[in-house]
Amino acid sequence: MFTERQTRSFLDPAVLARLAAVPLVARRPMVGTVSGRHASPHRGSSVEFAEYRKYVPGDDLRRLDWRAFGRSDRHYVKEYEADTNLRLVLVLDTSGSMDFGSGPLTKIDYARRICGALGYLASQQGDAVGITCVADRVVRSLPPRRSPVHLRLVFDLLDEAKPAGPTRLPEVLHEVAETVRQRAVVAIVSDLFCDPESLAAAFSHLRFRRHDVAAFHLLDPQELAFEFQRPTRFLDMEGGGSIFADPIDIADRYQRAMTEYLDAIRGIVLESAIDYQRITVDEPYEQVLARFLVGRAVARGLR
Amino acid sequence: MTFLQPWLLAALPLMTLPLIIHLINQRRFQTLPWAAMQFLLAAKALSRGYSRLRHWLIMALRMLAVAALILAVARPLSRGWLALAAGGRPDSAIVIIDRSPSMQARQAAGGESKLDTGRRQVAAALATLRADRVMVVVDPVRGPQEVAAPEAIVDLATTGPSAAAADLPSLMRATYDFIRENAAGTTEVWICSDQRANDWRPDDGGWSGIRDAFAKLPQQVRFQLLAYSAAATGNVAVRVTSVRLETLGRDRRLVATITLSRQTEGESVALPVKFEIGGVTSAVDVKLDGHEAVLANHVIPLERSAITRGWGRVTIPADADPADNDFYFVYDVPPPRRSVVVAEDPASSRVLELMAGIPADRSEVDVEVVKPDSLATIDWNTVAAVFWQGSLPEGRNAEEVEALVKRGGQAVFFPPERPARGEFMGCSWGEWSDDAKATTAESWRTDQDLLANTLAGSALPLGEVEIHRSCALRGDLAPLATLAEGEPLVARAAGVDGVTFVATTPAARDSTLATEGVVLYAIVQRAIDRGLQSLGNARQLDAGPAAVEVNEVAWNRVAGGDAAPSTEAGWHAGVFSRGERLVAVNRPATEDTSPAVADERIDALFRGLSFARISGEAGDTDGIVQEIWRAFLITMLIALAVEGLLSLPRSHAHDPAGRRTRPLEAAA
Questions:
Q1: Does the pLDDT of residue A1 top 60, yes or no?
Q2: Hey, which CATH number is domain B237-333+536-593, 2.60.40.10, 3.40.50.1170, 3.40.5.10, 3.40.50.300?
Q3: Which helix (H) or strand (E) holds B253?
Q4: Is the model's pLDDT at B85 over the cut of 60?
Q5: Domain range list for chain A
C-alpha cells in the first residue's frame, strides 16, 4: 500500500500485523455506502436472519418463504441483516499539553501511534477513515474516505500535527458532532484536560448524533504520581502563566484534585456509555489497542 | 539543669541546620513545563492550614531531634524540680551537714532519718558530679575536712548524728575562710539541713557579712540547699528543766521538773516518762495536751540515801525522732547559796541582803555585805552571785567580777547615785532620768531568764512595780524589761551570760522594787540559782562548744554517747565524770521547740548568691542528681519517628495511578 515505501515513525508493521487479527467493529449500527462487515440499521442480503415480515405487493417474490406459507397459509417475507462499512473519525488533541512526556514518548507521540494504527486497521477492513486535529478549534480536518490514498493523507496529517495552544475540547467536540453527519465511530485521543461537566455535554451531543464514541485518555505517569524532590516553577504548556510550588508541600492536594477529576471523568463515561480507555503513556500501545479491539469484538458477540 | 560536658552546648546552633537546609532547598528550584496545570491550580486553591502546620511541625521536630542529640551528648543532669541553677561540674564541693538532733527525725517508723537520707543523697549527687575535691564541714573550728570519695560521707563518723545545734552562720564562715584560702575554681557548697531556726539563726547579724564575703569571692560559688524542713509528726521531746537534791532528815530525794514538748499539736496523749537513777527505774504518766506539758517538782526518793552525787536519765517511748526521747541529768548536794552584796546605798544594801538571805528551800545561805572598798576579803571562788549597787567595778575588783562571770557566776548591777564614766564588759551607766512622774515596765521577757514566768505559768508582777526614776544604760545590751518610754529597765549584757543591769535601785526613792518585793526576790534568787550551777560538782551543759571541756582525756564517759569518738564527746549527749565532778551533756533547749525557718527567709539569707533549694523528705529513695541523657535520646527518637510519620505521603481513597477502566465497564 505504500508505493514509495515511505516509513512513518508512528507505525510499526509488526504491531499492525498482530492487531489486524482482531477486527475493528462498531458497537452501534453504521450507515455505510458499500457492503462491509458492520451491522446496518437497514435490512439487506447478508446470511444473518433478521425477521419475518408480511408480504406486501411489490416485494420480490424470491424472498417469499414458501415453507411458512405451507404451514400457515399466509405469505411472509424473510429478511436478513445488511452489512455495511463504517466511518472512523479520529479526533486528535493537538493542544500544547499533549507535548508533555516524562518518558521517551510524549502524549502526542503516543496519540499518533494510536491514531495511525486505528486508521490503518479500519482502512484495511474497507472502512472510511477521517481525522480532525483539534486544539482551541478544529485545526485541520480530513473527512472519512475509504481510499488508500486518503489514508496516506491522514498519515501525513498525523506527521504534521504539532501540539500548540490551549484546549477547548468540549466546544470542538460539539463542532465535530455537527459536522460529521452520518453515523461514525468517533475516536477521541486526548489528555482530556478540561472541565468534566462541559465534556459530558459534548459526549452526550455525539451520542445524540448516534456516533459510537471511543475516548483514549492519555496521561503521563508523572502527572499521576507527581513525585518531585525540589521546589519547582511549573510553566503552563498551553500558554498560561507559571506556578511556583514545593511539590512536597502540595503533593497531597494535587493528588486529591487529580483523584476528584478522574472520578468525575469516570462518572461521565459511565453515564454517556463512552468506550473509555485510560492510558498512561508508558504502557505499550499495542496492548492498549488490543484491549480496545477485543473489548468491542466481545461486546458485538454478546449482542 | 546542669551538664557534665557543657562545652558541647556550643554546638546547639546546629539545631537550625534543618531550617538552613530548607531555605537553601527553596532557592534551588527547577523550572518544568507542565501540562496538568488545572490540578496545580486546584491544589493551590485548596485549604493549606493542615499542610502548612504539618510542614512546620516536621521542621520543628527535625530541629528538636538535633537539639536533643546535642543535649544528650552534653550529659545533662537532673537536680529535681526546683533546682534548675545552671552550671557544670564543680572543681570543689563542700558539704555542710546539719547533724543536730532534729535531723534524726524519720518520716516513718523504722525509716531512714533526715540526716542519713541527706548524707546518702549528697554522696550520690557528688559521685555523679565528679568534683575534684570533696570536703565536709560539721564543725566551725575544724573547718572543711577533705574526704577521699563522696561515698565516704555516708560512713564518716564525724558526719554522724550529734546532740549539738549546727550553728550554720559559723559553718558558713568556716566554709568561706576555706574557699578564700584554698579552693580554686568553681565551688559548689551543699547544705544538708532541716532549716531549724536554732541552727540557722536567721537573725544573726553575721549573715549579711557572710553573704557579702561570698559575693566578693573571685571564684564562682554555688549553694545547693538540700532541705528536709517537714516537721516530724507526733514527735515528743523530753527535757529535765531542773533537778535538785533535797535532804529530809536521813532521807534524800530528787525533785525534778520535766517538760514534754512537741512542735505539731496532736491529740491528748498520756506518755509514760521513765526515770533511771543509779540502776533503779521508776515511771510516771504525763498527760500531754497542746504543745507542752510540765511535770513540776516530781519527787523521786533515793534508795541509797548515803549517796549524795549521781546521774540519771529520763526517757519516753520511741517516736519519730529518737534523739529527743531521753535526757541525762546529774545531781549533787547543792553548795551553800553564797552571795555578795556590794552597795553604796544602805537602803539598797539592806533590801538586797534580805532578798538574798531568804532561800526558797532549806539550803544553807551565806550573804556577805561589803563596801566597794572592802572587796579584797572575799573568796570569790565560792560566790554564786554578786549584787552590785554603786559605781561599776574597776581595776582588780573588775577582774574578780569578770572571772566570776566567766566561770558561770552571776553579777547584777544597780545604778549608783552619781554615775561615773567607767564601764564594765562594754556597758556603762548613763544619766538618771528626772521624771517626777512614776512609770512602770511596759513589757518583759516571760519565756526565759530572770523575769520568766513561774513554774506554775504565772507572770511576775513587774507591771505593778512603780519606777520613780531610772538610770540610762549604755552599751551592747539585750533588754529583758523595758519601760513605757522604751528605755530598758532590766537588760543583759549582750554576748555575756551572767551580767544583768537593773536601771533603778530598790531604794524607796527610786522604785517600789522593795515594797513590791516579789519581782526583786525572783531576780535575786534566780541569779543565785544560776550562779550556783557553776559552783556545784554536778553541772548540766548544752552539747557543742559549751561542753568542749569534756573532750579532754581526763574526762571519763559514764553514760551515753557511745558511738562518738572521744574527741567529739562534747557534741554528744551523755554523762561525764572527772574526779568528783559530774557533767551531763544534752541537746540545747532550743532544739526541742525551734520551728523551721520559712523558705523565703532562707532565700533572703542567700540573696545575691547562686542559690538553689531542693526539697526532700526523710527516706527519699530518689537521687537528687541523675544523668538524664537517656531521656534526651528517647526524645530524639520520638521526634524522628513522628517526623517520619508526618513526612509519609498521605494515603488517598482513590489512587489515580492505580485504576484503569475496562472497556466493558465503560460500555456499561
A1: no
A2: 2.60.40.10
A3: strand B251-261
A4: no
A5: 13-26+86-298, 38-84
Question: Chain B partners of A275 at a C-beta cutoff of 8 Å?
Answer: 663, 666-667
Q: What is the sign, positive or negative, of the torsion defined by CA atoms of B441, B447, B450, B451?
A: positive
Report pLDDT digits (tens) over B132-179.
Answer: 788 888 877 778 888 888 888 888 878 888 888 888 888 888 888 888
Using CB atoms, pick whichever of B39, B55, B659 lies closest to residue A254.
B39
- Interval B560-612: pLDDT, tens: 866 667 777 788 888 888 887 888 888 888 888 888 888 888 888 888 888 88
Q: Which residues of A touch B49 (CB under 8 A)?
A: none
Q: For the domain covering B92-231+597-624, report its CATH number.
A: 3.40.50.410
Chain pair A-B, CB pairs under 8 angstroms: 155
- Report the pLDDT value the prediction gives residue A173, as an integer from 0 to 100: 92
The answer, for B25 touching chain A at a CB cutoff of 8 Å, is yes
* pLDDT confidence band for B415 (50 / 70 / 90): very high
CB < 8 Å to B38, chain A: 193, 257, 261
Per the CB < 8 Å rule, is A225 touching B667? no
- Residue B83's pLDDT band, with cuts at 50, 70 and 90, is very low
pLDDT of B82: 36
Q: How confident is the model at residue A36 (pLDDT cuts 50, 70, 90)?
A: low
Q: Tell me the mean pLDDT in the region A247-258.
A: 85
**Amino acid identity, residue B405?**
V
DSSP B113: B
CATH number of A13-26+86-298: 3.40.50.410
pTM: predicted TM-score of the whole model, two decimal places:
0.54
Distance between B654 CA and the closest CA of chain A, angstroms:
6
pLDDT, average across residues B201-221: 86
Using the Cβ of B659 and the Cβ atoms of chain A, whether some distance falls under 8 Å is answered with: yes
Class of domain B337-532: alpha beta
What are the residue ranges spanned by the domains of chain B?
2-27+37-78+629-649, 92-231+597-624, 237-333+536-593, 337-532
State the maximum Cα–Cα separation within chain B, in Å, rounded to a whole number.
Answer: 143
A270/B32 touch (CB, cutoff 8 Å), yes or no: no
Contact B649 A98 (CB under 8 A): no
Strand B423-424 relative to strand B427-432: parallel, antiparallel, unpaired?
antiparallel
Angle B346-357/B517-532 helices, nearest 10 degrees? 60
- A173 Cα to chain B: minimum distance (Å): 19
d(CA A54, CA B481): 148
* Nearest-Cα residue of chain A relative to residue B40: A254
In chain A, what residues touch B661 (CB-CB under 8 Å)? 266, 269, 276-278
Say whether residue B37 is in contact with chain A using an 8 A CB cutoff: yes
- pLDDT score, position B665: 36
| B40/A246 touch (CB, cutoff 8 Å), yes or no | no
Determine, for residues B31 and A193 on separate chains, whether the beta-carbon distance falls below 8 Å: no
Domains B237-333+536-593 and B337-532 share a fold: no
Q: Residue range A117-128: average pLDDT?
A: 88
| Residue A63, min C-alpha distance to chain B (Å) | 37
**Three-state helix/strand/coil letters over B561-628:** CCCCCHHHHHHCCEEEEECCEEEEEECCCHHHHCCECCHHHHHHHCCCCEEEEEECCCCCCCCCCEEC
Compute the Cα dihedral for B135, B138, B143, B145 and give only its sign: negative
